[in-house]
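Input.
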Amino acid sequence: MLACALVGGKGISAPTSRDGYGWDDARLVIRKFASLFGANYYLEVQPFWELDKTCRINPAYERLGKELGVPLVVTCDVHYPRPNDSEMQAILHAVHRGKQSIDDAMRAWNYDVKMTLPESDRDLGERLMKTGLSRDAAWEAILNSAYIAERCTVTLPKADRLIYPIRREDWEPWT
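Output.
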């Protein structure tokens, strides 16, 4: 929601300000979420310097975070566990956008980013700085990510394994 308010997307037209950012709309979104979540609200930056949109959004979040007193946190937006699984993500992306074939899906998918973890905090910091963040903002985001992780104390109970009875017609091609 915030990224769309800032630079457009997902049904929200691009801002018409001279610099191409919707600063006022973004401030409204941040203030709304900050009022709801208080100290548990962060602006999410990502280390994908290969994506133009990330390189527009991260520095804008740094600016807005400083202005409004909202800290940054780094995440890695992962849609699939292995790089070879990107075809399925491309297909899901295309279905969402109404493409008609796998070929259309692959042509529409323009993210050639390996969704992998960095080797170290230093590597992560360097990736963040390549997106336009300052060194201080990159390290703030990394430290906040560690801080949030330390506060998480989730224990998930083990569930019985689900067994789906496969029928002969399940193997038939879809028509």
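The first strand starts at residue 43 and ends at 45.
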